[in-house]
Every structure is written in structure tokens, then in C-alpha cells.
Amino acid sequence: RGGLGVIGKLKVFRDFINKRLEVIKSPGAIPKVIKQNPIIRIVADKPFSQRIAFPSVLNNINNPFLLQLENLSDSVMQYEDVTLQKSALQIIPVEKLKLNAIENMRRYQQLIKKKEVTEDEPSLDDFILEELAAWFKNDFFTWINNMDCRVCKGETRGSGSHIDGGVRVEEFTCDKCHAITNFYRYNDIEKLLVTRSGRCGEFANCFTFLCRCLGYDARYIYSTSDHVWTEVFNHSKKRFIHVDPSENVFDSPLMYEHGWKRKLEYVIAFARDDVQDVTWRYSNQHEELLKRRKMSS
User: Which of 1, 244, 250, 258 counts the highest number of beta carbons within 10 A?
Assistant: First the structure.
């Protein structure tokens, strides 16, 4: 540069290399590119279609509600894919979550000593679950309302949907260049670990799976009032607790009926072991709710 000869250029490169070596040797000044984690390959034992392939028990029934329940009971079985769980465990910052949980547990113990809290002390697993939910919502998963235009990055608006390879695809049309940008609503956990985005369906689906990866007895909760979330068995309280990963809310089951003003009908829990109607814990207006339950006898 600027008329440097060969020797001058070599000196410039030598000085640059020496500076880089000094940086690398300094523990407190390692560049971010050196700190980055290696690329994690997401793999599963079987393709998605095979992971959720089970004989139908509703062959002669044409009730959309019951068919949806059967589909969901098959879908949650993908959470038990061992190879997929191993892939996810490479993504979850388990040690960081544990360290944060231990610190929070110590703070809680101090509050107990000061008699500032009266509840029984939660277990370490309870604190780890809270850290997992916070990390999932704040760092790992992204909520999607509208897609940025794939051409000009401008604002878009919903303009329709279609099915592509069994996946529902929402279409967003750009207000400026009129290009269409697609948003794939994946149910496949293998895909969600890569895209890491969606709305409540994707949030609950992926979060419930990550809970299973860490050994929690977790189940996927489907409500006909157009929302889904997670339940996790709490050994301290000896019951399942409500966890809404898209809101990062714990054990507030009446939030939908009273906070969101939803008219609940059916709330169903899906796990590897069984399917349960858990509607009653999400309402304290059972008589009114019963009058709305008309999708099945």
C-alpha cells in the first residue's frame, strides 16, 4: 500500500501476525471468533414421518376434534428420540443453567432464614427449570408475527397459506415490492432446533422437548381456545405445574380464563405415557365451561 516494497509489505504482515499472537496468548482478550462453539449437527434416529407413525384407532370416526387429539398423541412421541435428545443437549447451556440455579437457590435459602418467605424450599431441579424457561424465551427462541420481506426487507402482511410437504406455510406479502415471503409452521423438532422461531405452537413443542432432554416429566398442553403450553411434574409440590414458555410464566393456570378472558372448552395433556383431560385446573367456572363442551360426547 502507498508504494511499499516487498520488504515493507513483509514487515507489515509480520507486525500484524505478532499482534494477533499476543491477543491469542492473552486469556482475557480472546477474539469472539475463537470463543465460538463448533457447528452442531442436528440429527434424529428416524425421519419425522416415521417418528410419529402409529396405527390409528379412529379409522371410522369423522370428528375433527378427536382426530386432532390422536394426531397430537402421536406427535409428542418424537420427544423420545434418543439421538435427537443428544443433539439438543449440545445446544442447551446446561452448566450455565445449573450455576445460575444454584445461585438462585442460595438466595432463596437466605430468604427462608430471614423468614421473608414461608413456602417450602424448591428443589434444585425447580430452579434449573426456571433458568431453562428464561434462556429459551430470551436467548434461544424467537417469536414471529410478521416476516421481513425476503427481497427488500420491508414490512409484510399476512396474505394466505398453503400446504407444502405436509407443512402449513403462511404467506406474507410485501407492501413495497409485493414479493411473497413464506413462514413454515414446523411440527418437526429437528427443524425447530434449527429455525428456533415461531409462535406459541412452536414454543410449546420445542420447550416441552427440551424439558424431556433434561429428564423432566413434561407434557404438551393443547387448548381448543387457540393456545398451547407445557406442564412439568414438580416433585416438591407433588403435582404437575403449568409452564407457558412463550410467556415465561409458571404455575398460573387461571391466567387464560381470567387474565386473557378466554372461554375455555377443552384443555388436554399429551405425554409419552397417556393423554389426560386437564381442563378443570385451568378454570374455576366449571358450570359455565361444561355448557361449552360440545365437540364430543
Answer: 244
Of the given ranges (14-18, 29-33, 255-259), which has the lowest mean pLDDT? 29-33
Known catalytic membership, residue 200: yes
Distance CA 34, CA 185 (A): 34
Write out pLDDT tens, residues 98-151.
Answer: 999 999 999 989 988 888 877 778 899 999 999 999 999 999 999 998 889 999
Say how many CA atoms lie within 13 Å of 66 toward its Cβ: 12
The chain-wide mean pLDDT, for the chain, equals 89
Contacts of 214 (CB under 8 A, 6+ apart): 92, 94, 128, 132
Residue in the structure block whose three cell numbers are 402421536: 74
What is the pLDDT at residue 29?
A: 41
Please give the share of the chain, as a percent, with pLDDT higher than 90.
77
Give one DSSP letter per residue of 181-233, joined into a string: EEEEE---HHHHHHH-EESHHHHHHHHHHHHHHTT--EEEEEETTTEEEEEEE
Q: Reply yes or no on whether 125 is catalytic.
A: no
User: Among the options 74, 200, 217, 251, which is catalytic?
Assistant: 200
Residue from 227, 235, 258, 273 carrying the catalytic annotation: 227
- The single residue of 81, 126, 188, 244 carrying the catalytic annotation is 244
Report the alpha-carbon distance of residue 255 to residue 292 in Å, rounded. Answer: 19
Q: Is 242 annotated in the active site? A: no
